[in-house]
Amino acid sequence: MAQANTHQAKIQFGYRRHSDQDRPGQAPAEHPVVIVGAGPVGLSLAIDLAQRGQRVVLLDDADRIGEGSRAICFSKRSLEYWDRLGVGDRMVAKGVVWSVGRIFHGESLLYQFNLLPEDGHKRPAFINLQQYYAEAYLVDRIQDLPEIDLRWRNKVTALEQRNDSVALTIETPEGAYRLHAQYVIACDGARSSLRQMVGAEFAGQVFEDQFLIADVKMTAEFPTERWFWFDPPFHAGRSALLHRQPDDVWRIDLQLNRYADPALEKKPENVRPRIARMLGHDKFEFEWISLYKFQCRRMDRFIHGRVIFAGDSAHQVSPFGARGANSGLEDAENLSWKLDRVLRGTSPASLLESYHAERSLAADENIRESTRSTDFMASNSHQEARLRKAVLSLAKETEFGKRMVNGGRLSVPCSYESPLSSPDADAWSGGPPPGCSMLDAPIAERAYLTDAFCKDGTDFTLLSFSNGTAIDVPDGVRNIRIGGEGGLADPSGLVAKRYDAAPGAAYLLRPDGYVAARFRHPTRAAIAAALSQAQGLN
Amino acid sequence: MPLSTSSNFARPDDAFRAIVEAHRGFTEEQSADFDAALVLILANHIGDIDVLREAIGLAKRRMIDGQQQQQQQ
Asked: How far away is chain A from the Cα of B62, in angstroms, using its nearest Cα?
């Protein structure tokens, strides 16, 4: 159980009556966007939309931030998103920064990897941070944004799709009321009740093996790295994971027998000896114990009429790879700018279809990667176990064996085959192609390209490399110019290098930092064409 | 480059014998372990996923043919 007194973040919130509840049933309040679920995804999406000037109603059926650490690994990409939402510094200041992982087999180290082996990025590969901190900081940020109306203990109990809106029935401690929303975003987690209300299937693969998560509090000298064991001496024949969180809390994940009795295994008196064997001592306290089986699955369609699904409600993966919360945050960032444009009427509603296209592709990739990791850890057949054993033994003396060992492939931004991208017309030998996320690089001492990108909120941006001639940038597109008079510096040459850019080149970035198009010799017409493609106007 | 099925060894019997003899003295279980390691080493040496898939397909056809023969018996 999470102990509220071990952290300062506010976790309990009061229900407050809203004037919407006093309206007569036949004239419910109308809202542009209602987000259901105040987890990391719903909170981030609400902030993003509010920063774009949208009014948002955010509903949550609880009155507190969930217990237990749950998601702990937040990726570079997620941190960059949180920078854009004004909470990145706080997350990183509290979080435990890491980039190195070690894989052990038995007693010996098989290999180690560095997820961010190069300098010149604002954010590290990952931070570890208990989900309750992340949520608390997001809730704090919401206090600065009057556009967001966060309503605790508001539970959606019915949903009716209409031509021009969605009608929601919401249960509160003081009875039910109704709301109309132009769009409803379901961020209500893996057991999404909205998913059931739209009648969507959520089928996929169920893994039989059980895993025990224990977050323990102790002072320890382990380095801040991700340690993963196959067949460790303290947990023979199975896998184990050790990972540090803030406040001297350590995440321990032990693979259990698929026939283990969950009620029995969860009892602290049964967990304690296992962990003591792993640590070599029993000077620790439990913060949270959870036993789980996992599933890899996704909805066929992330969009059902005017109800759009994001995060765990739309897709679920195994935890090995940090692809759950991070992919949900990518959903939020992908959806936010599109929904904003549709609500403003600057793009047609069909732009939202690209959210489904891009993020369902990402979900497939995350499911594939995390399924492979899980299969590697918990082999399904005798022969699969045999091949795994061969890989582990080859890893001791060969590089290719090390690379085949799969103890989790950690989350990186997905590349989209997207209808919004304009394919390369020029030859490029590097840099992020259309459909890939922008890359960071330094533009001064302790200042980065990702800072410049979100300086005044995020919008379509032309990242151009000066050759002395000004580029004629279409209206509504910001310009970040590297080099030339008044342009940003490239002190280490890394901006030009990471973008494979000679003077004169330009990248058109979407508001979510993805590359829409790039040009060796941009013309106004070519930029304008790529822009309307990316805005769903073609 | 497609999977090569022409004879690539100057002395094919040497290659066949080398593999057969490598298994000498192994139990069935050890032989299977050994084959698993050998397959992974050779697959990595080929280093071409299309060629590997073609090889898997060719090997799989033996299994299907074998099953059909069994059913006919």
From this structure: 18
Dist. CA A72–CA A132, nearest whole Å:
9
Report residue A4's pLDDT band, with 50, 70 and 90 as the boundaries.
very low
The model carries a pTM of: 0.93
- Per the CB < 8 Å rule, is A400 touching B33? no
Q: How far apart are CA B54 and CA A538, in angstroms?
A: 41
Which residues are registered as beta bridge partners of A96? A128
Give every CB contact of residue A414 below 8 A, 6+ residues apart in sequence: A330, A358, A361, A362, A365, A366
Query: Tens of pLDDT along A498-508?
Result: 999 999 999 99
User: If you average pLDDT over residues A464-472, what whole number do you get?
Assistant: 88
Hey, is the C-beta of B8 within 8 angstroms of any chain A C-beta? no
Q: Which two tokens stand for residue A301?
A: 């369609």
CB contact under 8 A, B40 and A387: yes
- Whether A391 and chain B come into contact, CB under 8 Å, resolves to yes
CA distance A46 to A116: 30
Which residues lie closer than 8 Å to A448 by C-beta, 6 or more apart?
Answer: A121, A122, A440, A441, A442
- By C-alpha distance, which of A4, A62, A349 is closest to A188? A62
Q: What is the mean pLDDT of residues A146-171?
A: 97
Mean pLDDT (whole number) for A472-490: 92
Please provide the distance, in angstroms rounded to a whole number, between the alpha carbons at the two ends of chain B. Answer: 39
Polymer length in residues for chain A: 538
| Encoded tokens for A185 | 């975003």
Asked if B37 and A400 come within 8 Å (Cβ–Cβ), the reply is: no
B70: exposed, middle or buried (C-beta count within 10 Å: 0-12, 13-18, 19+)?
Answer: exposed
User: Does A390 sit within 8 Å of B37, measured CB to CB?
Assistant: yes
Average pLDDT over every residue of A54-72: 89
Kindly list the residues from chain A whose CB atom is less than 8 angstroms away from the CB atom of residue B32.
383, 386
Measuring CA to CA, which residue among A476, A477, A448 is closest to residue A463? A477
Selecting from B36, B41, B44 the residue whose C-beta is nearest the C-beta of A387 gives B36
Q: Is A4 on the interface with B (CB under 8 A)?
A: no
